[in-house]
Amino acid sequence: MDVRGTVFNYYTCGLWTVSNWWGTGPWINNQTKGTVARFYRQSGNELWRSTAYSSGTADWAPVYSLRPC
Known about the structure:
Blueprint: E1 2-3, E2 6-7, E3 16-17, E4 24-29, E5 36-40, E6 46-51, E7 54-59, E8 65-67
Antiparallel strand pairs: 1-2, 3-8, 4-7, 5-6, 5-8
């Protein structure tokens, strides 16, 4: 994921809390086919999900945590 010019690569499972993300940027879910990455709001509700392999552009402002697998 590219957030404000900084690239973040997640290689391990788990819930990752993020902060100070805003703006839009590209993402690539290049995990094993069928692996689902989930992105969450501050409330903990799921914002959106991505099933591998997929890519796109996201608005990072509402993302407060993610689970890459």
